[in-house]
Amino acid sequence: MPVRVVETSPSSSTPWPCSGGTQGSTMPQPCALLSAGQTFSGTQNVSNQQKDEAWRVNVQIQGCDLDHGYLCGTMEALNVPMADTPVVTFWEGEIVDTKNYTFFTDKWGATTEDDIRHWSQFPSFSPLQSMVENDGGKLLDLSNYQNIFMRWKEQYFVNVGTDCGLTIAGFYYVCFSCNDGSINGFYYDPNSSPFQKLELKTTSNGRSGFSFSSYELQ
């Protein structure tokens, strides 16, 4: 949720297996750290040519359905200069799994060139790049990768109005580590500062929320 502006730690370089793999599946396998109720905390760098700035950010996953490549949650931005209160948004995500979604976005104003430019910011994407450039990675086997790639699209503001001075017109390219639960992301919006980096670490001590795959309410 960057400021509306018109501009005139990184994952491992080698993917590693996730636990609990299913034989014969090429989709990312379930990771306990990416499930309903998990929480994360970190920063989003919103610097531009005029100033350096970073906001503290909290994220909670509210739902996760790996079979359909879907997850959703809330994002809370703190110490936002133009807001009197933390700004909370609801987002929905697409999990790149070669079944439901590929590395090509095909919407939200992103071209394939934009996709490659942003995915290539993640070191763990490097071994996949040549295949992704051909067809979005439709034939990739992602079942043995420690990293799960996603797109997060904020849908609406939860506790403030649209006149809050922030924009949710863009979306995040996201790379999640099954190994330690860390999240790195880059925000894409042609009308915002480019490559605003999101860096989050898992903070979960307990779980709450719901899981679509098991229809579990907590």
TrEMBL record:
Low complexity: compositionally biased ranges: 8-20
GO cellular component, one term: GID complex
InterPro entries: GID4/10-like (IPR018618)
Top-rank taxon, per record: Eukaryota
Span list, region Disordered: 1-27
GO biological process per UniProt: negative regulation of gluconeogenesis; proteasome-mediated ubiquitin-dependent protein catabolic process; protein catabolic process in the vacuole; protein targeting to vacuole
UniProt xrefs under Pfam families: Vac_ImportDeg
Family named by the database record: Belongs to the GID4/VID24 family.
This protein's name: Glucose-induced degradation protein 4 homolog
Naturally occurring in which organism (per UniProt): Cuscuta campestris
